[in-house]
């Protein structure tokens, strides 16, 4: 018997990737509303942008990006042809001209440059999705072209479920992994396996809040105590204390409300000449509550 999943994927999906565009050049054709969204996504990926769109059709946000990002090279004109594709690694078109959209797509395919044509699925080598970015966390919701609005609505739901400090926790895990690689360098082999196992145990055994509370000193301590002995200790005391003080607002409100209630009822009873002691009043409040 094997514990592998032997079932073949049913297909009909697309490949989900986190495409590394740092330092690459992306051509964006069009300067409207959709283009401004594309610019934002590409800037988040540290790429350079060549933007081709007549000035009079620019969206306010697109103009803002042109004026404020040194990564954007702007040409105030319409798409010219082959020559605009020289040195380009990816093309995104967002124009209100279906004929030109299709022509640009055909040229890109000829030059084997990956292309997305907003809203024309057959002309897309890849689709955009609805995106959530929170620090290094990136979530893309794709319905594989079935319902883009639904992707947008699901995004809102997912955003509401994300733990508050998830971005900080992920950043800290990244820093800790960097420190561990410095302490135990080497690619692959036994050392690689040992590092992966240890990091996985840290991520599994520590709460996100505890990971988010790590600072430089506690990371060094964790590496010193844990890595050297190949064990993963509990979070240091000051991080656990932080956790205690991170009591959720709702819990805090319930606890404070409970004691204020007891104090008030004591005062009222006292005022009415019912001189029960404090503990008798707690009993009366509890009886009234349950
Ligand atoms: C996610 C998002 C990302 C982005 O573009 O940044 C995105 N569309 C968004 C919004 C949106 N698009 C449309 C509406 C109107 C409501 C509706 O029609 O449903 C709304 C809603 C709105 O505007 O609120 C119209 C529309 N879109 C496409 C077609 C053509 C067709 O389906 O045939 C038509 C019909 C045109 C017509 O009828 O003429 C096609 C595509 N749109 C995609 C992505 C790709 C598949 C995504 C997936 O896998 O789910 C794909 C295939 C190609 C691509 O463009 O990459 C972004 C939400 C971002 C956010 O806010 O979070
Ligand atoms: N995927 C999505 O989320 C989504 C949502 C809405 C619309 N769309 C589609 O995306 C496309 C663009 O939408 P928009 O709202 O940004 O449109 P828009 O009309 O606001 O902008 C179009 C832009 O393209 C420029 N343009 C037109 N022809 C050009 C050419 N040959 N060369 C260079 N620039 C050219 C215009 O000057 C303008 O800046 C439309 O086809 C629209 O149907 C997609």
Automatic annotation (TrEMBL):
Pathway: Porphyrin-containing compound metabolism; siroheme biosynthesis; sirohydrochlorin from precorrin-2: step 1/1. It is an enzyme of class 1 (oxidoreductase). The keyword Oxidoreductase applies. GO terms for molecular function: ferrochelatase activity; precorrin-2 dehydrogenase activity. It comes from the Eukaryota. Gene3D superfamilies: NAD(P)-binding Rossmann-like Domain, Siroheme synthase, domain 2, Siroheme synthase, domain 3. One of its GO terms (biological process) is siroheme biosynthetic process. The chain crosses the membrane at residues 250-270. The keyword Cell wall biogenesis/degradation does not apply. This is precorrin-2 dehydrogenase. It comes from Phellinidium pouzarii.
């Amino acid at each position: 018997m094997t514990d592998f999943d032997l079932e073949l994927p049913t297909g009909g999906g697309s490949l989900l990737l986190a495409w590394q565009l740092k330092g690459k050049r992306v051509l964006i054709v069009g300067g409207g509303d959709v283009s401004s969204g594309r610019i934002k996504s590409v800037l988040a990926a540290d790429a350079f942008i060549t933007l081709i769109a007549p000035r009079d059709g620019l969206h306010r946000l697109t103009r803002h990006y042109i004026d404020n990002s040194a990564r954007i090279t702007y040409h105030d004109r319409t798409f010219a042809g082959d020559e605009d594709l020289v040195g380009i690694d990816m093309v995104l078109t967002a124009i209100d001209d279906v004929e030109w959209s299709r022509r640009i797509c055909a040229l890109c395919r000829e030059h084997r440059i990956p292309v997305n044509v907003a809203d024309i699925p057959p002309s897309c080598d890849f689709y955009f999705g609805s995106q959530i970015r929170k620090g290094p966390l990136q979530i893309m919701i794709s319905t594989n072209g079935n319902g883009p609005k639904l992707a947008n609505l699901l995004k809102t739901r997912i955003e509401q479920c994300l733990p508050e400090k998830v971005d900080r926790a992920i950043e800290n895990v990244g820093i800790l992994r960097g420190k561990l690689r410095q302490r135990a360098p080497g690619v692959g082999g036994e050392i690689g396996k040992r590092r992966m196992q240890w990091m996985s145990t840290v991520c599994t055994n520590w709460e996100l809040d505890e990971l988010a509370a790590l600072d430089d000193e506690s990371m060094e301590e964790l590496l010193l105590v844990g890595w050297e002995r190949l064990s993963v200790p509990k979070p240091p005391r000051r991080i656990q204390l932080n956790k205690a003080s991170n009591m959720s607002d709702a819990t805090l409100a319930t606890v404070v409300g409970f004691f204020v209630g007891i104090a008030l009822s004591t005062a009222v009873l006292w005022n009415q000449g019912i001189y029960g002691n404090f503990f008798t009043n707690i009993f009366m409040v509890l009886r009234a509550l349950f």
